[in-house]
């Protein structure tokens, strides 16, 4: 009969300690990992004891133009600074070779016939010559 009060007291003590906890720490065994599975036991998140982090389902998500970066000193996942993604502009390259001349283009359409000009003045009469 002494067990019941002891179990009740221990349960109450554990419940009160858990009520004040703010963090959950998991330390995987050497060579082990901390894994979060969904309700179908499909792996969704994995942290190896070496510190490597995997998000296996990431490749099946919708593509997005936003990038995800992390802070090297802290490991915090953050938005990427656009300047960190685009490098500095490189030097201007050498001028390329002149290309071959292209083929002659198609001949254009012939224009409309111009208007008939006015008749010129009558010329001077020529010499009769010797007979």
Q: How does this model look, in words?
A:
The chain is α+β, with helices and mostly antiparallel strands and 131 residues long. 17% of the residues lie in helices and 15% in strands. It has two helices and five strands, in the order αβββββα. It has helices at 3-20, 82-85, and strands at residues 33-37, 43-48, 53-54, 68-70, 77-79. A three-stranded antiparallel sheet has the order 1-2-3, with no helix packed on it. Strands 4-5 form a two-stranded antiparallel sheet. A hairpin with a 5-residue loop joins β1 and β2 (43-48). The protein is rod-shaped and about 160 Å long. The chain starts with a helix and ends in a 46-residue tail after the last helix. The model has no long low-confidence stretch (mean pLDDT 79).
Q: In percent terms, what proportion of residues is strand?
A: 5-15%
Give the overall silhouette. rod-shaped
Based on CA atoms alone, the radius of gyration comes out at: 45 Å
Task: Give a quick account of the main beta sheet: strands, pairing sense, barrel closure.
Answer: 3 strands, antiparallel
First-last Cα distance: 169 Å
Number of helical segments? 2
Structural class: alpha+beta
State the strand order across the main sheet: 1-2-3
How many β-strands, per DSSP?
A: 5
- The low-confidence parts are none
User: How are helices and strands ordered from N to C?
Assistant: HEEEEEH
Helix content: 10-25%
Give the overall average pLDDT. 79
